[in-house]
Specification:
With 252 residues, the protein is of the alpha+beta class. It contains six helices and eleven strands.
Length: 252
């Protein structure tokens, strides 16, 4: 082969290799770096504004103090703080007028490369006083945001991590987790408006019939509770198109 053809072929391969490297950087390396940077900034912010009494029980919290005060200085839409020990879940919960804003923006209201921020369904009571409160968060690589919710698909993980803490303005409430569901994003689990005890009881029956497992409570136990408040933590889990994993607990 003549030298000029060898040189042309060599230039072609160099060009192809350079283009592949360019695409890999902009399609994979750069987006991951941007997410890493956003995540690091978010964690630094959360460490600064985390409620001081986040590890106290509800009875120990001083009701005259607002444990979310520091978080509220950053975002007046903060409604709570969710913590599950021995997981990466230790986040503020915001609420907007819709269920789209915090899919794309961080707790400070700024775009954060699609990390988003855990948020309470806009249909739910902002003080978690409703029959059920649904909190959403993304499932991001390296166990970021709500990715650890998927760990509860294994019943043994819930057995070793049966509780969490929900900090709201009146103090810290214990969460007793009892069920895990894998559902479509349009499942009845996302129903948020209940107008009768019959409807609430039917919802409880639905959880116990469709959950992958339940522990600690029976359906009758929950139906007999006065002023029952459920907490649902939801994230994508990728078993099938539009799959969602939901960890369900009782707010005490």
């Amino acid at each position: 082969m003549k030298p000029k053809y060898v040189f042309a072929v060599l230039l072609l391969f160099i060009g192809i290799g350079g283009y592949c490297g360019y695409r890999h950087y902009y399609d994979n390396v750069l987006p991951e770096k941007l997410i890493d940077d956003s995540h690091d900034e978010q964690i630094k912010l959360f460490e600064r504004i985390k409620p001081i009494k986040a590890n106290n029980t509800h009875n120990e919290a001083k009701k005259e103090e607002d444990p979310l005060q520091m978080a509220e200085e950053i975002n007046s839409g903060v409604v709570g703080w969710i913590t599950i020990d021995s997981t990466h879940i230790d986040f503020p919960i915001a609420q907007a007028e819709d269920n789209d804003f915090y899919l794309h923006n961080g707790f400070d209201g700024k775009y954060n490369n699609e990390l988003g921020c855990p948020f309470l369904d806009c249909r739910c009571e902002g003080d978690f006083s409703g029959f059920n409160s649904i909190v959403y968060g993304h499932h991001i690589t390296h166990q970021r945001v709500f990715a650890d919710i998927a760990l509860f698909k294994d019943i043994s993980f819930l057995q070793s991590h049966p509780t969490g803490a929900l900090t709201i303005r009146d103090g810290v409430h214990n969460i007793r987790f009892f069920a895990y569901m894998t559902v479509m994003d349009t499942a009845p689990a996302y129903h948020a408006a209940f107008v009768s005890d019959t409807e609430k009881n039917e919802y409880i029956d639905y959880i116990f019939s469709d959950a992958q497992y339940t522990i600690g409570f029976s359906a009758d136990d929950l139906k007999e509770k006065d002023d029952l408040h459920l907490l649902l933590l939801s994230t994508c889990t990728y078993e099938f198109a539009d799959a969602r994993g939901i960890l369900i607990g009782v707010i005490e």
